[in-house]
Every structure is written in structure tokens, then in C-alpha cells.
Design brief:
Layout (H helix, E strand, L loop, with lengths): L1 E3 L4 H11 L5 E5 L10 E5 L5 H10 L5 E4 L14 H12 L1 H16 L4 E4 L13 H23 L6 E3 L1
Parallel strand pairs: 1-2, 1-4, 2-3, 4-5, 5-6
Helix pairs in contact: 2-4, 3-5
């Protein structure tokens, strides 16, 4: 079983998982009524809401792969008038979202034989520009999260759980 967003890249992940033999795919979406794909169970999920993440984790007890794919990007530099608000919004989704889901589902993955976590990142993690400054910073933070989780999970004998993409 897999849990991830199912629009755009998330939809491609869902189709690929089904094509490779996944028996069930959970798709975290804000509006489950908009998702209609055989073999996919839509789960209401906003990664910025801790209670929603907890509800999704309690419902998806057979997950073997978590794909952290949720992400937002807005245009603007660090010195833009709205840069602080932009940073909070993008970090909320691009960093804290994967952190919350990883915390909530690592025990589920462990109970199901180890599983894996795949964090979808960006080249903007390393190369930043004024066009997408806050997005790049949030993806850099997500890169650091990915590496930190890898070390933490390795200490529990679970280094194969985490893969950046």
C-alpha cells in the first residue's frame, strides 16, 4: 500500500504503482471527491494540518511506501515584501508536511516490515534564484530533513526506509 498525493506528479506515481502491481494505493488529497482512479483510495489530507495527518495515518495502517510529494511554490525573492508570509506557507507544506507524515507513518512502515519513504525534492534545493527564493529554501530544508531522517532511521536498523527523489 502506498500513500501520496494523486494530482500531477502524484497521479503519475499512483498509476505507476498500480502498473507495477500495487494492490492498493492511498492518495492524500484535499478533495477526495475529485479523484476517480480504480485501485486508488482517496484520503482527505492537508499536510499543513496535524490532525489530518494523524487521521490519515490511523486509517492507512497497511502502508509500505510513503511518497512525500505535496509541494507549493510562489514567485518572489528573499527581499520581497511578502517573503516572510511566503516562507511560512512554503515551509508549512514543503518541510513540515513531510516531517509530519514521516513521524506519523514511520511506525506504520516499521510494523509492515520496514517499507520506504520517498521525499520528492527539487534541484532548487541546491540552486536558488530570486524567482523562487523561498521555494528553494523550503526544498533545501526538506533535503536536510531527508538526510537527518536517514540517519535517525539507520539507528533503528531501517536505513532503507528513506530515499530522496
Amino acid at each position: 500500500m502506498k500513500l501520496h498525493n494523486a494530482t500531477g506528479l502524484g497521479l503519475a506515481f499512483a498509476r505507476e504503482a498500480l502498473g507495477r502491481g500495487a494492490r492498493k494505493v492511498y492518495a492524500g488529497v484535499r478533495d477526495p471527491s475529485k479523484l476517480r482512479l480504480a485501485g486508488v483510495e482517496a484520503i482527505r489530507l492537508d499536510v499543513t494540518r496535524p490532525e489530518g495527518v494523524a487521521a490519515a495515518a490511523s486509517r492507512c495502517t497497511d502502508v509500505a511506501l510513503l511518497i512525500n510529494n505535496a509541494g507549493i511554490a510562489t514567485v518572489g525573492g528573499f527581499l520581497s515584501a511578502d517573503s516572510i508570509q511566503s516562507a511560512r506557507a512554503q515551509l508549512g507544506t514543503n518541510f513540515f508536511g513531510p516531517l509530519r507524515l514521516s513521524q506519523a507513518l514511520a511506525p506504520v512502515l516499521g510494523a509492515n516490515g520496514g517499507g520506504a519513504i520517498l521525499n520528492v525534492l527539487s534541484a532548487a534545493s541546491w540552486i536558488n534564484s530570486p524567482l523562487l527564493a523561498m521555494y528553494g529554501a523550503s526544498k533545501s530544508a526538506a533535503w536536510a530533513l531527508t538526510n537527518g531522517l536517514r540517519h535517525e532511521l539507520r539507528a533503528h536498523g531501517s536505513s532503507r526506509w528513506l530515499r530522496p527523489a
